[in-house]
Amino acid sequence: MQDFQQAFIEFVIEHEILRFGSFTLKSGRTSPYFFNAGLFNTGAALDFIGSTYAAALAAADIDYDLLFGPAYKGIPLVSVTAAALANRHGINKPYCFNRKETKDHGEGGLTVGASLQGRALIVDDVITAGTAVREVMDLFERSGTKPAGIIVALDRQERGTGTKSAIQEIEEQYQIPVLSIISLAQIIEYLGRQDNPALAKNLDSVKRYSDQYGVI
């Protein structure tokens, strides 16, 4: 586990963005943990998440021309990531994001920011069913943009209705890498190293969930 991943896990636990307990998911499964990226809702939290996405991208071997944020959650994420890449790593990339509806006045169009072209890397919070990603891929196809990869905050490493996770299905369908800041395996690793009884007590339930639904 890299330093930025360790720091990320500690941050999301401290700020209750990653919580442990019993949570009913949209799938109907009862999960022993829940990750709510919507709680990166302060200036300090946005600065932290942007710097962490940037650290992950700077460490990755991916060639891309443009950062793209899917509306709506991807909009602040791609913005702070682009700023952190420039300020902390000297990597100055253009970025843009899409609208949910076409604007027919002013500059018009479906996107805001830099021109959607070249090889675009998608910045988003999570991939659950992959629906939002497929919508972005349709937009890329219409504009002639090539997907370079995707980066998300958390890979739940959890099967959908089949034998693969949503991330594995996306990687297979579009032949692109999907990076994550942390994964379920790293959460388990972190819990396994805890001296804090309040955190360590969650290890068994998370491992059982992973054994039942995981693709680790």
Model description:
- The protein is an alpha/beta fold and 216 residues long.
- It has one domain: Rossmann fold (3-Layer(aba) Sandwich).
- It has helices at 3-14, 43-59, 74-89, 131-143, 166-174, 184-192, 197-200, 203-213, and strands spanning 18-24, 30-35, 66-69, 95-103, 109-113, 119-123, 146-155, 178-183.
- The protein has a six-stranded mixed sheet, with helices on both faces. It has a two-stranded antiparallel ribbon with strand order 1-2.
- The chain is globular and about 50 Å long.
Q: What would the CATH topology be?
A: Rossmann fold
Report the uncertain regions. none
> Which second-level CATH architecture applies?
3-Layer(aba) Sandwich
Which value, in Å, is the CA radius of gyration? 18 Å
Strand content: 15-25%
Order of helices and strands: HEEHEHEEEHEHEHHH
The total of helices stands at: 8
- Lateral strand order in the biggest sheet: 5-4-3-6-7-8
Shape: globular
Biggest sheet character: 6 strands, mixed
Write the SSE topology.
Elements: H1 3-14, E1 18-24, E2 30-35, H2 43-59, E3 66-69, H3 74-89, E4 95-103, E5 109-113, E6 119-123, H4 131-143, E7 146-155, H5 166-174, E8 178-183, H6 184-192, H7 197-200, H8 203-213
Parallel strand pairs: 3-4, 3-6, 6-7, 7-8
Antiparallel strand pairs: 1-2, 4-5
Helix pairs in contact: 2-3, 6-8
